[in-house]
Amino acid sequence: MTSQHSWIDAADAAHALGVSRTTLYAYVSRGFIRSQPRPGSPRDRIYARDDVERLRRRTEERRDPDKARARALQWGLPILESAITLIDGHQLYYRGCDAIALARSRSVADVASLIWTGSFGSIATTSPAPAGVGLKDGGLPFVPRAQAILAATAARDPMAFDRRVTSVATTGWRILQLLTAVAARSKAAEPTTEETLARAWHVRGRSVDAIRSALILCADHELNVSSFTARCVASAGSHPYAVVIAGLSALEGPKHGGAGARTQAMLTSLRRQRRLDTAIAARLRRGEPLEGFGHPLYRRGDPRASALLDLLREHWRKSPELGFVTAVVKAATAASGELPNLDFALAALARVLQLPDEAPLALFAIGRSIGWIGHAIEQYATDQLIRPRAKYVGVAPMHELAANS
Predict the structure, then answer these.
(1) Which of 221, 295, 302, 375 is catalytic?
(2) Topology (CATH) of 7-70
(3) Residues 385-400: pLDDT tens digits?
(4) Rounded to two decimals, what is the model's pTM?
(5) In terms of Cα–Cα distance, which of 195, 190, 247 is closest to 373?
(6) Is 315 annotated as catalytic?
(7) Residue 343 among the catalytic residues
């Protein structure tokens, strides 16, 4: 079956765009709108609702620039310059380098160095985290634990306010070490970030490479909500610890990194079902989303998810959990036309490698902290405060007193 929420027929698509069916078909042929045969009626075609909506908005914004400005903060027009990440609709690049290739061939330190300085191997990775900061957590989840330790460390770090690129990069590596220690619940560190996490999570071998790849693929994704938040905090002149604390606050939200928890819950629920296609159809009939599927910036699927799932297929072909998540992808894509995104891939990685429940969010946060530091470095260099204006839509000012005086 096809989800009624994701696909519409030709009449509805043409009506939404205010065009004829001939024009609609031209949009399809030019690659602006995806289409596929209607299940059960192969001669009829249905059209991707999000593509239609995107094209409708683009046309509307050309006619009304005010609407374009209003929507610039919602998957809209670029509002800030950055040399870190390019998303071209199909691929992801860090400073011109294919992120998928980097995840296969480079270390976390290499990618951090590339994002922070523009070249490999130009940051110091031997600087220890400041002493005297404990890791006792009182049972708190990963994010509040990390925020508390970062705040305490910042108060003891005299280099926190040094805005030179090399100093921020050194502080950034210290922050990454701290986040890793929080996730591992231990001060003892292995030679690399991924090895420290692997030891704490009781995995080894190919699992270490998979963790490294996940961290690199999470490193940056342009101006997502946490990176924009981090950049705003940096624009106020706040130190890198504060930048990452703010990024973590945004990341934890259920519409960002917190979406992974919903994906994990969905997979746990589906694991108990005998028929995945029936269970997924029931979710769609109830109006429940398929967590971990679809991404507005990738019409052909999230390349980060594809890379991680391909890695799992290469090395864990006989895993029952891999068989299960692969079946979920097949059934969900058949039902909705959507492909898995990074949230799904991180949840799948955790199931196949049997990682702790908080591992997907921890991987996302540790990896994405690299990007937050990179955006802070860029923002410090501009020395500009990010301060957009609001379009007032409230009650009009009252002038009666002035008129009657």
Answers:
(1) 295
(2) Multidrug-efflux Transporter Regulator; Chain: A; Domain 2 (1.10.1660)
(3) 999 888 888 888 876 5
(4) 0.81
(5) 247
(6) no
(7) yes
